[in-house]
Design a protein that fits this description.
By secondary structure, the chain is α/β, with parallel strands linked by helices. The chain is built from 13 helices and 15 strands. It has three domains: 141 residues, NusA, N-terminal domain (N Utilization Substance Protein A, Chain:P, domain 4); 71 residues, Nucleic acid-binding proteins (OB fold (Dihydrolipoamide Acetyltransferase, E2P), Beta Barrel); 120 residues, K homology (KH) domain (GMP Synthetase, Chain A, domain 3), CATH 3.30.300.20. The strands form four sheets. It has a five-stranded mixed β-barrel. The radius of gyration is 36 Å and the shape is elongated.
């Protein structure tokens, strides 16, 4: 009997041992911090009490003591002559039943029995706890993936929308997995995506959403090529070789400009690798996309000439505006310099950030004439108008 009475005295408490064991298990298996869960559960218990006691305010507190193995709720009430709000006030007579020496104006702290919660209140508490766990998991997943923006991840295709063509990928594993979204505009033309296939993708952005983190991914982004080179070329990964610029038309061709401050390192050779192994691995990952590796130069003329590879360049003349140039190539190299549908010239312009006008050696045309300082070019009509003013 004494043991039964002792147990009955603790009936106004949650089963502390089981409670903290569950919290510790959640922290271990899901990685959700114990302090976070205790905060959410405390809020849940307070919300449950307020739901069942409409007049309750900030006078409700919960104390969780892991060492003692207890979780207890208390409500503070003012001792008054006339009770207007039973949730925040109590009469002197009732107060003295709890505390014989109570006086008017005192604040009495009364322990609330958790078993006294109504069914609806208990459900509310449970929902808040579950929601807190979900939010914590989503927050942890968001933190995990937001740190991987602009990186390459491998995902498994889980769904291909038959109407829009959008592809969903499962990225990660276990409780830390989330869905990646590969929109039609981020897909390489000609690539087929089938459910179950593994795919390397570039993480463009990670957004928060009500359903958890939304990972926006791409197969067309130039960053994908850069990261692939970092994975394949140790000299790029350790900084010996630097990627200066990338121009890409996904699925067809990419130009990448590389440079090294170490005179003993050939940046192009490092990227190509022994027998072309390194660049071939990248081309294979890109499903046959051609990759031109260009040596970057601080000299714009040299850089532009290299960017038009594989065409030979006779001369590069920079125009006065500083971001345009005229390039002269042998007549038999003109179509090669321009490329199919203008692709080679277009990629070279994007790579160097110069507007490139390609001319054959037989008809190079004339360069615009500038004043001695090379900064201003005016025609006769503009000059006459200026003099009249």
């Amino acid at each position: 009997m004494p043991k039964k009475n002792a147990k009955a005295q603790k009936s106004n408490e949650l089963d502390g041992a089981e409670f903290f064991a569950a919290i510790n298990l959640i922290e271990k298996e899901k990685g959700i911090p114990k302090a976070y869960m205790l905060e959410k559960i405390t809020q849940a218990l307070v919300s449950a009490y307020k739901r069942d006691h409409e007049g309750a305010g900030d006078n409700v507190t919960v104390e969780a003591d892991e060492e003692a193995g207890t979780v207890r709720m208390f409500v503070k009430k003012d001792v008054v002559e006339e009770v207007d709000n039973p949730c925040t006030e109590m009469s002197l007579q009732m107060a003295r039943e709890k505390l014989p020496h109570a006086q008017l104006g005192d604040v009495i702290r009364i322990e609330v029995r958790t078993r006294d919660f109504g069914r609806i209140a208990a459900q509310t508490a449970r929902q808040v706890i579950i929601q807190g766990m979900r939010e914590a998991e989503r927050g942890m997943i968001y933190d995990e993936f937001s740190s991987k923006e602009h990186e390459i991840l491998t995902g498994v295709v889980t769904r291909v929308d038959p109407r829009s063509g959008a592809v969903s990928l499962r990225i990660g594993s276990g409780s830390e997995a989330t869905q990646g979204f590969l929109g039609p505009g981020e897909q390489v033309k000609g690539e087929a995506y089938l459910e179950g296939m593994r795919l390397r993708v570039y993480v463009v952005e990670v957004r928060r959403s009500t359903k958890g983190p939304q990972v926006l991914i791409s197969r067309t982004h130039p960053g994908l090529v850069k990261r692939l080179f970092e994975l394949e070329v140790p000299e790029i990964y350790d900084g010996t070789v630097e990627v200066k610029s990338i121009a890409r038309e996904a699925g067809s061709r990419t130009k990448i400009a590389v440079w090294s401050g170490d005179e003993n390192v050939d940046p192009i050779g490092a990227c190509v690798g022994p027998g072309g192994a390194r660049v071939n691995n990248i081309v294979e990952e890109l499903h046959g996309e051609k990759v031109d590796i260009i040596k970057y130069s601080e000299d714009p003329a040299q850089y532009i000439a290299a960017a038009l590879s594989p065409a030979d360049v006779l001369s590069v003349d920079l125009l006065p505006d500083g971001k345009a140039c005229r390039v002269v190539v042998p007549d038999d190299q003109l179509s090669l310099a321009i490329g199919k549908e203008g692709q080679n010239a277009r990629l070279a312009a994007k790579l160097t950030n110069y507007k490139i006008d390609i001319k054959p050696a037989s008809d190079p045309g004339e360069l615009p004439e500038a004043e001695d300082d090379g900064l201003v070019v005016v025609d006769d009509e503009t000059e006459d108008a200026a003099l009249e003013e």
